[in-house]
């Protein structure tokens, strides 16, 4: 095994200018991540300088067998924490050979919204709190839980410390450092209320980069759990009963909200979000009705309400924002399996472009 480790850790820059680029894209479910690697003649820093590539869309549920070619367009580059050196991870979106975005390509429409002059002028910032659950490989039961049984009730696990409270910290810390190495704007991690559940935060990120960074952070976490022999779940309610679900709370502000008088802008934005509550819920992740029950720090899925420091609301405004009269708010409705391209662009579209 030591020889295998030595080979995996080979520093290619000692002997060649060539690099490895791992192209990443979103598969047919809209949640599964796929990737494959290619050799490039030298380092590349600009995604527009990278070659387009293709893959078999019939094997990912994204194209028929008789016309299976799907084209990858490189969109964002990150350092590769697995191969290191000058090797890179490349976030891509997917198109038909004719140049049309395929149905699961949500990035293309998001980029159009973020490039709208009115949206660009507001410089929308996002901070996304990605919750997830680590499961035992063969039984799909949270790590640290007794097989077929349950740990003690919730209470000691949130930000907990100790072998009987924090399960999987080695994976979590590995992911944290790997994201920092990659150049992802990861801003923190913490243990969650349900044991075996954790959270990382990405942001503040501007516009389309929030979606790129969260998807690549998810990819890195998938790769690390693959190495660890643990299953990664983004199910919004992985365990039935009196256990917290998993969300992707999305913190948001615009330039107008961050400036003096911004609190009034925030309140108007929240009013608009309330008017489009059903549309947002429909786009905020699969299975969210199992999570948004009005219990476990959520508002009921059919109810829209907001409040200051209220974690049982659809939208939470922080005490600091209320006191300063400007700042940001948190949309607590998105599920852990949401598409960040959809959620971030929809919030911008509703609060900036949509006219009631």
TrEMBL record:
E.C. number: 6.3.1.2
Alphabetical list of Pfam families matching this protein: Gln-synt_C (PF00120), Gln-synt_N (PF03951)
Domain GS catalytic, residue spans: 106-356
Keyword entries, A-Z: ATP-binding, Cytoplasm, Ligase, Nucleotide-binding
Catalytic activities: L-glutamate + NH4(+) + ATP = L-glutamine + ADP + phosphate + H(+)
Residue ranges annotated for the GS beta-grasp domain, each copy included: 19-99
Keyword Cytoplasm: yes
Entry's localization field: Cytoplasm
Family per record: Belongs to the glutamine synthetase family.
Listed PANTHER family: GLUTAMINE SYNTHETASE, GLUTAMINE SYNTHETASE CYTOSOLIC ISOZYME 1-1
Name used for this protein in its record: Glutamine synthetase
Organism: Hibiscus sabdariffa
Lineage: Eukaryota, Viridiplantae, Streptophyta, Embryophyta, Tracheophyta
């Amino acid at each position: 095994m030591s020889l295998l480790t030595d080979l995996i850790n080979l520093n290619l820059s000692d002997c060649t200018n060539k690099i490895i680029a791992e192209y990443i894209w979103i598969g047919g479910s809209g949640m599964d991540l796929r990737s494959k690697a290619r050799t490039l003649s030298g380092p590349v820093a600009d995604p527009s300088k990278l070659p387009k590539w293709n893959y078999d869309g019939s094997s990912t549920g994204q194209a028929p067998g008789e016309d299976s070619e799907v084209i990858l367009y490189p969109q964002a580059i990150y350092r590769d924490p697995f191969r290191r050196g000058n090797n890179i991870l490349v976030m891509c979106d997917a198109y038909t050979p004719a140049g049309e975005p395929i149905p699961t390509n949500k990035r293309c429409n998001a980029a159009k919204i973020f490039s709208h002059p009115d949206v660009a002028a507001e410089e929308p910032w996002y901070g996304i709190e990605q919750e997830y659950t680590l499961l035992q490989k063969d039984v799909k039961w949270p790590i640290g839980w007794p097989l077929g049984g349950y740990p003690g009730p919730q209470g000691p696990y949130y930000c907990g410390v100790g072998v009987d409270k924090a399960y999987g910290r080695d994976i979590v810390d590995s992911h944290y450092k790997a994201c920092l190495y990659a150049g992802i704007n990861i801003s923190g991690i913490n243990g969650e209320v349900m044991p075996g559940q954790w959270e990382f935060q990405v942001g503040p990120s501007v516009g389309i980069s929030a979606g790129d960074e969260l998807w690549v952070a998810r990819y890195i976490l998938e790769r690390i759990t693959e190495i660890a022999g643990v299953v990664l779940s983004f199910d919004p309610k992985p365990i039935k009963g009196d256990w917290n679900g998993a969300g992707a709370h999305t913190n948001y502000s615009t330039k107008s909200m961050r400036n003096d008088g911004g609190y009034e802008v925030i309140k108007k934005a929240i009013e608009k979000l309330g008017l489009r509550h059903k549309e947002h819920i429909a786009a905020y992740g699969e299975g969210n009705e199992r999570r948004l029950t009005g219990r476990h720090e959520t508002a009921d899925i059919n109810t829209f309400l907001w409040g200051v420091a209220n974690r049982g609301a659809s939208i939470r405004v922080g005490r600091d924002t209320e006191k300063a009269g400007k700042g940001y708010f948190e949309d607590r409705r998105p599920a852990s399996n949401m598409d960040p391209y959809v959620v971030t662009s929809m919030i911008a579209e509703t609060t900036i472009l949509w006219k009631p």
